[in-house]
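Human: My hope is that you can spare some time for a protein that puzzles me. I am handing you a single protein, as its sequence and its fold in token form. Could you go through the record with me and say what the backbone is doing? Take your time, and here it is.
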Amino acid sequence: MKKFLPIIFSIAIIAFGVVFIVSGISTIANKDKFDTQLKATVVDVQEEWESSADPDDSDRLVHIAYIDYEIDGKKFEHVRAPEQNDNLKVGDTVDILVQSQNPEKISALNPTKGGIIFIAAGSVAAIIGCVSTVRAFTKKG
């Protein structure tokens, strides 16, 4: 079983990478659906502790902003902001993109940037997984 563990782990990394790549492509493909730019108001900022993935790093306190916005007379209240910034305060206004056909779907102003980041991270993970898989199969022993 120990012999197969590195292979299983490598395949899981490849799958994780593929999911990220597909998510990034989907984000870029759907960016045109976000057709309305609005101003939203920050109505709440909550503090949360974020655990570090690296055991050598300490946990950190992050601020999660929630916004209210209105489109076509319909109000959306206390929605998590699509882009977080530790400097946001209650009363600040932020620019968001909304799908006019599906106004509960919101995005930061540049959804392509997020898609590219997902594709890049997924590609790196997939490459690492492939290299690891090849090394696991070619390992002598």
In short: The chain has a mean pLDDT of 89. The longest strand covers residues 36-50.
